[in-house]
Amino acid sequence: MSLKTYSIELPASSFSALRKTPAEFIQEMKYAAAVKWYEAEMISQAKAVEIAGLSR
């Protein structure tokens, strides 16, 4: 699997609001996006797992 890196700008308060480190926040964003897109039937379960960085 080939990975690409993209950057987004977030206020520093984003991390403290959820009491997460930047790494934890990013992982949670990946989970949330994968779940939302899967629920909306925009992606398959396999693709959601891949986006979230999990294994089936």
Please characterize this protein's 3D structure:
With 56 residues, the protein is mainly α. The chain has a domain at 19-52. Helix content is 55%, strand content 0%. It contains 3 helices and no strands. It has helices at 13-17, 22-39, 45-52. The protein is globular, with a radius of gyration of 13 Å. The two termini are 15 Å apart.
Poorly predicted ranges (pLDDT <50, ≥5 residues)? none
Helix/strand/pairing category: mainly alpha
User: How many DSSP E strands?
Assistant: 0
The largest pleated sheet is described as:
none
Mean pLDDT: 91
Topology of helices and strands:
Layout: H1 13-17, H2 22-39, H3 45-52
Helix pairs in contact: 2-3
Question: What characteristics describe this protein?
Answer:
single chain; globular; 56 residues
Structure in a nutshell:
This protein is mainly alpha-helical and about 55 residues long.
